[in-house]
Design a protein that fits this description.
1914 residues, ten-stranded mixed beta sheet
Length: 1914
């Protein structure tokens, strides 16, 4: 026994057992070897089942064992003469055979797990039977050298899977040749049938029916055994060779050994050759022969040793596994070497798993939460990818992630088919060559994969603390055991990962009393739970699996602890040695459960003999110790440990594996039980009984948190930052101790309680007001302001202060620790458990249902249920409540205009802090579920901060909808690894959002934003939440999402119908407001998701339901839709997903269903595939959408109320772009106009063709089109812009065509005038020549006589009058016009009395006729026919004029005003078409206009119920005359200046005087001509320079002036600012009644200010540049002319002609030079002109800037034409001007961002003089009516205002709580003026609210900026 004892010590001391699944070794390994029984004789018998031969079995080996040099293993037979005829090896499942004395094959075996060989006399033949059942992981064995058959024993029912796995194992360990010797035996119980097994197995291609057999599991039927032997004989006769030879295996192993050596050298391990192996290798070269089984084998060694001796290495001892792999970390000579070996092995493992870098740079949660592209299902996994695949599967709650199959590296893959028969000509040597081919062996070596638990632990070691926590939490959800004690793989120090348990929460039902059977539900964090702990230890090596037995105690259907039979289990394992795992059994409160309370089970992996530290810790912490030992004998190495445990106070259960012993109690709390020949089920039941018995008495309890106190181990939480953040969180905990949750909220979180709820309620009430709306609204606003003040006062609480200070003090990652600790502490609060309330709620609800069933009164019970419902709402407390409080503190402070100094510090930084938390991956509340309200101010600020930190990233928004507790949050958490609350007691309330980073380069967006929502139809809220709330929530969530998951749970049609109705209506609303989300229906908890036909039927029913709901929703939403696909793009085949049920069994111990995880992955892939086709939306757009949706939902009619501010902002930007492009084109057109005008004036162009103009603009227009295309295609909002692209591209084309036509018309008029004045121009040329000649002749008379200027002037004046009379005597003068006399005559001719005419002139009221506030003075009653309208009201008013005035409605007032404006516009347009500038003024024009006006008045009067006084007609005629007078005078002056010869000649006086004076003073003709040319050039250069400066100034102001560089809305803002600054009521009235007129006035004023006040220097610079350009142009013309004339030797005439021609390119220039033919010195002429040009340029530069007004182009007119070419339609209620930049924007409605109070336009309550203060946006959501038809009996509700007629139908007025402070200030500022102007009063219902008077002018002006910013916000 000395040698055997030595082996035992080595085996125990070296820790050969590396994990539970490899603990099974050779029978009695470490104590003694089993010898092959040798028999002295064979007793012949003729019947099967006779007594077996006496076996020679001895516990001690023979004396000559050590002396036999031929025995390699120390084992030999005692008699070599007895040889078997047939050699059988049993492989397969231990459950395939029942042991017993009647078993014919294994009669002598006491237990199946023995490894040995027995000789039998079976049916008259000597049979050798080797038992290898269940020993797949054995590391060494002895087999007969000749094996005739491997009997693969398979239990019925598992035959398919076990057949494949059995063949794979056999091929792996014995080579492909062994497959030819397999006989498959399917065993069955006596009550079973196996009719289908043959059919099932035939599916496998390698299966042969003749090598298949069935028999009883007990193997007691001799006939079946005889038939089996016959089939084996037949197989042996077919095989060649007939038996499997040891050489086959040896040669195969040799190849592997050679490869192992190379592998170890590559890894840095030095291998020493083993002499035994060398000898064995040489002996294997001999050829072996095997005869048929019915002949005795030739004398030779009957056994071949397959076990190899250990090979020494420098690092330790290499042990070879059964598959030939070498394990370098098993045996170590010393502790130091052990650590080095462990480190090397760990590094090798990390290298294999591609995790080398991750050991230092840990994996983070972000690495696995990042959204990756869709992955292919069933994708092959290579070994280097298995770690990542494991984590990904774990995130999906797929417990199969632990069993990931690894793809073989061999290109051929594993072969399970028998080797093919050799072809003719092939020899045994050829077969041997194949055996010795190392390449195949290398592949086989590489195919061996890493142990699954090594993968798990490697990932654990390579993860940071947060990912570890997530990983362990997911493992717990998968019902797997969790690491409690973990040795460091390098240092071997032990760590307790306490941090990883902090997030795990367990729920169970405890049975308090066996008699009363009272069941209590408990739910708490597991680290806080006090539970008994049962620890399992192993001393020595065992033949059974400890882990398997523990699983049988906890959950026999799930492998909580990994064991040897689990898929993927391998022999080699490195990281589990010394790991203690823990799992909890959580009872469900069922009567058949063994454990009635939560119980922890701890399993120490490895031999506890060598794991002293872990053993001591578990012994101390456990309630019960369960020890497994092979035998229980004194003197064994384990006896001292057993004795110590026996003598301790801890209860002990000793399980003796290799002994038969009934369970018995040795003394109190000390039990032992033998396991031999007992099945696992019986052992488990007995063990449960013993454990329950011990736990029923007083016992120690275990709490996870106490592990932090254990000395000698490292706790992961004990690092600086973790402890620091924990301390900070514990300081918060101090505030929460000994307090109920409701008390905590009330005391420490007051802002989100009653104050916030009242604010929300009041806010909603202001959308549903009755009575005097503005007064009521003002009261509501005051109340809301007071509530905010109360919040402000209550906000400075210690808990929040401490939380904020801590959050601000920590860095980014440290914040995550702090938040996690805070959440952990909050979740652990004793009162934060909803289970008692839920139990009471359920009890009360059941009581109500019972009473209703019995038709009894339930009022009292329902009241109690409401109380419970409120308690349920207030009883929850989480981190989200703290952030909610932050939001309310922020809103309270931000809402106050001037908050007191005593408020919360740094409140403005709260959004930034929350943004950091959101970016870090923490969910943030979007909608407060308790208040059912979105805190818009907080959310908007928070998202703004996110944009600041990340940039305006694009997000794809995924939202989810479904009924309560349908698994929405669970689905999202599993799909994306999120952190939404999922427990039944803590369901999601409201809506939460969480950001997930998207991998770069795979999507067109940057983040996935997931929105999780509370469930629809929440039962506990049934008392106070209606269907309206569900509709509101569904609309909000659907509107937010790019895609919405509709979660349907179960198959209840009524539940489905309720949800579908809500969802379909939400999508209907989205369609109507032009939002286009997509949807996917997720049908959870489907019983059979693989049933295609059933699913198709389900989809058909769903489609029918959706179509039905669509029709119902269409009626309610007034929208035409016959089917669901009319509302949203939906494919029922693709967009409906079926999910298996979540749990695989019954909770709380059930693991997640793998089918559910598969469904999650499929859905995730589908979502990401769909998302990859989207670009998402920018975060800023998401923010706007939140605001728009919520504001619309607050109103009754969502569709009517929805205002897409994002779309509006994008459209406004498009308007600005359109304005910029059209301005660029207009600017270019102005330059073209100048060019063509010059040519026409110079007589170079007599006609203009459109194509010429198009050609001039071609390049610029092409550039504009390109810019516009780029804007639409490159803009980040291109999807939204696409709806307007066609329209704006068409508008740009139309604008281009319009501008070209306008220019052509202008140029045609100029040409027409030029041609009309051609005769006059010729006459003028004659006048000019004659005057020049006369001046020259006169100068000759006075030349040299005098130099006195006055005398010369006197002499010239004396003859000038004579010259004028002489030259104009034959011409007809053009007289001045007298419009006053003409107007009076026309009015008299129309029959109007002179006195009326004079009275109208004298009063001057007609000048503002269109802006009069009350037209009652012009109205009288009709006396003919029936009583007139006013006459009736006059009588009703009993003669009181004030009542008479009241009866004249606002509608009628506006009709008159509109008539006046229309008449004015039509008259002016008609008159401006008259050719006054060409033919002169004609009084007939005014006569025609006056008659038409009078006829229009008569026509208008007949359509009304009242008459108009004559004064109205007189004033209207005067008003129109006055509006046309300026134009008539201007046009007539043009005609006069062109056609009156006298006027023209008189204009030449100064010029001719200069000629006369110069000649008199002795100037030469050259000098006189030069002076004359310069004088003419001065006018031309000034004209050109000022015209160009006008264009330049307009462009400069358009680009730089804030008022002009935007769209129409921007201009309006500055107009209103100017009006407020001026504070002139009359200007306001002009703007209200005639907005365009006031805007034009504003533009002119701004231009005046710009030019003459603010930017004079800049204007001078522009003018100087243009003058210099013209000077340079003239100088160049001089130079070019001189060169050309000199080259052609030209004379003066040529020089003048060329020079004047060159000037006409840019200047209008005409001049007659007949009097200067005597000039010869052209160079001198050039010099004189050059000098003169410099002088006149300087003169022009200093001209007054108002000279610009004299010229054709004026900057104000250019800007007016650009900026006022827009829509000027006004709101029919408040006269707000449509803000659309496009003049004709049909079919789009008119709209304005902010409307005005009705008092601004004089609206009043009908029949009263009370002003109406309501804003349009308030009225359209009220119950008020208006009278658009002038009939007191025909009213229209404001809610249906579009039915009031065409002018109402084209307006979109959305309900909006936002009203500009500006108009409130205006009403208050001009209260008296408005009363006087409109004749109404601000009293009674029209009394101005007090709140309005708080708006100052500064605040009013500031509100304009805020409104503008809101409009243009992205």
């Amino acid at each position: 026994m000395e040698e055997d004892h030595h082996e035992t010590k080595a085996a125990g001391g070296r820790g050969e057992e590396k994990e539970e699944e490899e603990e099974e070794t050779e029978a009695e390994m470490g104590s003694e070897h089993t010898t092959l029984a040798s028999h002295n004789e064979v007793e012949s018998t003729q019947e099967c089942g006779a007594n077996l031969m006496d076996s020679l079995q001895d516990n001690n080996p023979p004396e000559n064992l050590d002396k036999d040099p031929q025995s390699e293993a120390g084992v030999q037979t005692s008699n070599a003469k007895v040889l078997p005829e047939l050699t059988l090896v049993l492989i397969g499942d231990t459950n395939a055979i029942d042991m017993g004395s009647s078993n014919l094959l294994l009669e002598n075996y006491e237990q199946v797990s023995e490894f040995s060989t027995e000789l039998y006399n079976l049916c008259g033949r000597v049979i050798s039977v080797t038992n290898m059942l269940g020993l797949q992981n054995i590391e060494s064995f002895h087999l007969n050298d000749t094996i005739h058959a491997f009997l693969l024993l398979i239990p019925n029912g598992l035959h398919v899977s076990h057949y494949s796995s059995g063949l794979q194992w056999l091929e792996k360990n014995f080579g492909k040749e062994s497959l030819d010797f397999v006989m498959t035996v399917v065993t069955y119980k006596s009550d079973e049938k196996c009719e289908n097994t043959l059919t099932d197995l035939k599916v496998n291609g390698s299966f042969e029916e003749k090598r298949y057999h069935t028999c009883l599991r007990s193997m007691t039927d001799p006939g079946e055994i005889q038939e089996l032997l016959e089939k084996i004989d037949g197989m042996a006769s077919e095989n060649n060779p007939s038996c499997y030879g040891g050489s086959m295996h040896h040669e195969d192993k040799e190849q592997i050994n050679n490869m192992d050596s190379k592998y170890l050298k590559d890894k840095g391990v030095v291998q020493q050759n083993c002499a035994g192996d060398q000898a064995k290798s040489s002996s294997n070269k001999e050829e072996e022969k095997c005869d048929k089984p019915n002949h005795p084998a030739e004398e030779s060694d009957s056994t071949t040793a397959f076990r190899h001796k250990p090979e020494s290495t420098e690092k330790g001892t290499i042990k070879r596994n059964i598959d030939g792999r070498e394990d370098t970390c098993l045996l170590t000579p010393s502790e130091d070497n052990s650590k080095g070996q462990a480190q090397e092995t760990f590094e090798m493992l990390l290298t294999t798993l591609q995790l080398t870098d991750r050991h230092q740079e840990k994996w983070t949660a972000d690495d696995f939460l990042k959204i990756l592209p869709p992955v292919r299902q069933n994708q092959d996994t290579q070994e280097e990818d298995v770690a990542q695949k494991f984590l990904q599967g774990l995130m999906l709650l797929d417990y199969r992630a632990r069993y990931i199959p690894v793809r073989q590296h061999s290109p051929d893959g594993p072969q399970t088919n028998p080797a093919p028969e050799p072809e003719n000509g092939e020899t045994e040597d050829g077969d041997s060559d194949l055996l010795f081919d190392t390449e195949d062996d290398v592949d086989e070596f590489r195919d061996s994969h890493v142990h699954p638990m090594d993968v798990q632990m490697a990932v654990f070691h390579c993860s940071d603390s947060f990912l570890k926590q997530i990983m362990i939490t997911k493992l717990s959800q998968c019902q797997f055991a969790l690491p409690l004690l973990v040795p460091d793989p390098v240092t071997m120090n032990i760590e307790c990962p306490l941090w990883t348990f902090r997030q795990i929460k367990k729920t169970w039902k405890t049975t308090e009393s066996a008699t009363e059977n009272t069941i209590t539900t408990k739910s708490m964090p597991i680290w806080k739970a006090e539970t008994p702990m049962v620890s399992f230890l192993r001393l020595g090596s065992l033949s059974l699996s400890k882990s398997q037995l523990i699983n049988a105690l906890i959950n026999d259907r799930h492998s909580t602890f990994f064991h040897r039979e689990c898929p993927g289990s391998t022999k080699s394992r490195h990281l589990m040695e010394g790991v203690a795992e823990i799992a909890w059994y959580c009872p469900a409160g069922k009567p058949n459960e063994a454990f009635t309370d939560c119980t922890a089970f701890c399993n120490l992996h490895g031999d506890a003999m060598s794991l002293e530290k872990q053993r001591d810790i578990l012994t101390e912490k456990s309630s019960i110790i369960v020890v497994f030992v092979p035998t229980l004998k004194k003197g064994n190495q384990s006896s001292s440990v057993i004795t110590a445990l026996f003598n301790s106070k801890k209860p002990l259960i000793c399980l003796i594996v290799d002994e038969k012993c009934n369970a018995r109690q040795m003394k109190k709390g000390k039990y032992k039980m033998g396991l031999k020949e007992r099945n696992q089920a019986d052992i488990a039941e007995e063990l449960k009984r013993i454990i329950c018995s011990i736990l029923s008495e007083q016992h120690d309890s275990f709490t996870l948190e106490t592990m932090a106190e254990v000395p000698g181990i490292r706790v992961d939480e004990k690092n600086d930052i973790c402890q620091k953040t924990k301390c900070a969180a514990e300081e918060i905990q101090e505030f929460l101790k000994e307090k109920d949750v409701s008390e905590i909220k009330e005391k420490f979180l007051p802002c989100q309680g009653e104050l916030w709820h009242k604010w929300c309620s009041t806010n909603k009430e202001q959308y549903h007001l009755v009575g005097p709306i503005e007064m009521e609204k003002s009261k509501k606003l005051e109340k809301m302001k007071k509530l905010r003040k109360d919040q402000y006062k209550a906000s400075d609480r210690q808990l929040m202060t401490k939380f904020i200070e801590s959050l601000q003090s920590f860095k980014s990652k440290d914040k995550a620790y702090f938040l996690k600790w805070t959440q952990i502490i909050i979740d652990a609060l004793p009162k934060n458990d909803l289970a008692p309330i839920l139990q009471e709620y359920d009890k009360k609800w059941t009581e109500i249902l019972t009473l209703k069933k019995d038709q009894k009164d339930t009022d009292q019970q329902e009241k109690e249920l409401d109380i419970l419902s409120k308690q349920l709402q207030s009883a929850t407390f989480g981190l989200e409540h703290i952030f909610r409080e932050m939001g309310q503190i922020y809103e309270a402070h931000a809402s106050l205009e001037n908050p007191p100094l005593a408020g919360v510090k740094d409140w403005s930084k709260y959004p930034e802090l929350a943004a950091e938390v959101l970016i870090s991956g923490h969910p943030m509340e979007l909608m407060d579920g308790d208040a059912a309200h979105v805190p818009l101010m907080w959310i908007s600020s928070l998202l703004d901060e996110v944009v600041k930190k990340l940039g305006d990233k694009r997000v794809f928004v995924l939202s989810v909808l479904g009924i309560q507790s349908s698994g929405k949050s669970t689905m999202l958490n599993a799909m994306f690894g999120l952190q939404f609350a999922v427990s039944a007691g803590r369901c999601t309330k409201g809506a939460f959002m969480q950001l997930l980073k998207v991998s770069e380069g795979h999507f067109d967006f940057d983040y996935l934003l997931v929105v999780d929502t509370e469930g629809l139809r929440a039962l506990e809220l049934a008392g106070n939440v209606t269907l309206h709330h569900d509709n509101e929530l569904a609309t909000f969530v659907v509107g937010l999402g790019n895609m919405t998951l509709i979660n349907i749970f179960g198959e209840n049609p009524s539940d489905m119908q309720d949800v579908l109705q809500i969802v379909v209506q939400a999508f209907m609303r989205m369609k109507r407001v032009k939002l286009s989300p997509s949807c996917v229906f997720v049908h959870q908890n489907v019983t059979d998701i693989s049933a295609t036909e059933r699913n198709m039927e389900g989809k058909r029913r769903l489609q029918e339901k959706l179509d039905q709901m669509a029709q119902l929703a269409a009626k309610e939403e007034v929208c035409g839709a016959e089917k669901f696909s009319d509302i949203i793009a939906f494919n029922v085949q693709e967009d409906v997903k079926y999910f298996a049920q979540l749990w695989e069994g019954s909770p709380p111990m059930a693991p997640p269903n793998p089918g559910y995880s598969e469904s999650i992955q499929e859905l995730k892939n589908f979502i990401l595939s769909k998302a990859s086709q989207s670009t998402g939306v920018p975060l800023s757009h998401f923010k706007n959408k939140v605001e728009d949706l919520w504001k619309a939902l607050l109103n009754e009619n969502f569709v009517f109320s929805f205002k897409n501010s994002l779309e509006i902002a994008v459209y406004r930007k498009l308007e600005v772009k359109y304005s910029d492009l059209t301005w660029e084109l207009r600017n270019h057109m102005l330059n073209i106009e100048n060019q063509f005008y010059t040519k026409i004036e110079n007589g170079q162009l007599e006609s203009v063709v459109l194509n010429d103009l198009y050609g001039e603009t071609k390049t610029t227009f092409a550039k504009i089109q390109t810019d516009l295309t780029s804007y639409f295609e490159d803009n980040r909002d291109k999807e939204m812009l696409s709806q307007w692209r066609g329209r704006f591209e068409s508008k740009v084309k139309d604008f281009h065509q319009e501008q070209v036509k306008i220019l052509k018309n202008k140029l045609d008029k100029i040409i027409q005038q030029k041609q009309a004045f051609k005769k006059v121009d010729n006459e003028r040329t004659g006048f000019e020549s004659k005057l020049m000649q006369k001046s020259k002749e006169l100068a000759k008379q006075f030349k040299g006589k005098t130099d006195d200027e006055d005398e010369l002037q006197k002499q010239f004046d004396s003859v000038w009058t004579h010259w004028v009379d002489e030259l104009t005597k034959d011409t007809n003068p053009v007289d001045d016009i007298n419009l006053e006399n003409d107007k009076t005559s026309i009015l008299l001719d129309l029959g109007i009395e002179y006195n009326s005419i004079e009275e109208s002139k004298k009063s001057g009221n007609f000048k503002i006729m269109s802006e009069i506030g009350n037209y009652f003075q012009y109205v009288c009653t009709k006396h003919h026919g029936e009583k007139g309208f006013l006459q009736k009201h006059w009588q009703n008013a009993k003669g009181h004029v004030s009542n008479y005035i009241k009866s004249f409605s606002h509608h009628e007032q506006e009709l008159i005003r509109s008539f006046i404006i229309d008449v004015e516009r039509e008259s002016v347009n008609t008159l401006m078409c008259k050719p006054v500038a060409i033919k002169g003024y004609n009084p007939a024009y005014l006569v025609e206009m006056a008659k038409k006006i009078k006829n229009e008045v008569t026509k208008f009067e007949t359509e009304q119920k009242y008459a108009l006084k004559k004064e109205f007609t007189v004033d209207l005629l005067h008003y129109v005359f006055d509006r046309t007078e300026h134009w008539l005078l201007r046009e007539h002056n043009k005609f006069q200046s062109k056609n009156d010869a006298l006027t023209y000649v008189q204009s030449k006086k100064d010029e001719n005087y200069c000629i006369f004076r110069n000649f008199c003073q002795g100037s030469s003709s050259v000098m006189v001509l030069a002076a004359l040319v310069c004088e003419r050039l001065k006018a031309s250069i000034a004209e050109a320079a000022f015209n160009q400066s006008a264009v330049n100034l307009a462009n400069e102001m358009r680009c730089s002036s804030p008022a002009f560089n935007g769209n129409r809305s921007n201009l309006e803002k500055f107009v209103l600012k100017a009006l407020a600054e001026k504070e002139e009521f009359s200007s306001f009235i002009t703007y209200i009644q005639q907005p365009r007129r006031q805007v034009e006035t504003f533009i002119k004023g701004e231009v005046e200010k710009y030019i003459f006040e603010e930017n004079t220097d800049k204007v001078r610079k522009i003018l100087k540049k243009n003058v210099d350009d013209m000077k340079a142009f003239v100088n160049k013309a001089l130079h070019d002319t001189m060169e050309k004339v000199q080259a052609q030797s030209g004379k003066t005439e040529m020089w003048l002609e060329e020079f004047f021609s060159a000037l006409k390119e840019k200047l209008t220039f005409t001049m007659s030079c007949q009097s200067f033919s005597d000039i010869n010195n052209l160079d001198f002429l050039k010099e004189e002109i050059t000098t003169g040009i410099e002088s006149i340029a300087e003169e022009i530069r200093i001209l007054p800037l108002d000279e610009m007004k004299k010229y054709r182009m004026k900057p104000d007119e250019i800007l007016i034409e650009q900026l006022c070419n827009c829509c000027w339609v006004t709101c029919p209620f408040c006269a707000a001007v449509c803000s659309n930049t496009l003049a004709g924007h049909s079919p789009y409605d008119h709209s304005v961002p902010f409307h005005r109070s009705g008092a601004v336009t004089g609206r009043h309550y009908r029949g009263t003089d009370e002003m109406s203060l309501e804003f349009c946006t308030t009225k359209v959501s009220s119950n008020m009516c208006f009278y658009p038809f002038g009939d007191p009996d025909r009213s229209v509700p404001f809610k249906s205002y579009r039915t009031g007629g065409p002018k109402y139908a084209c307006w979109r007025i959305t309900p909006d709580e936002s009203r500009l402070s500006y108009w409130k200030w205006f009403v208050c500022r001009f209260e008296k003026e408005l009363e006087k102007y409109y004749g109404r009063k601000f009293h009674c219902k029209g009394k101005i609210p007090h709140e309005w008077r708080n708006h100052s002018k500064e605040k009013a002006i500031a509100s304009l900026d805020q409104e503008q910013a809101a409009r243009v916000a992205p």
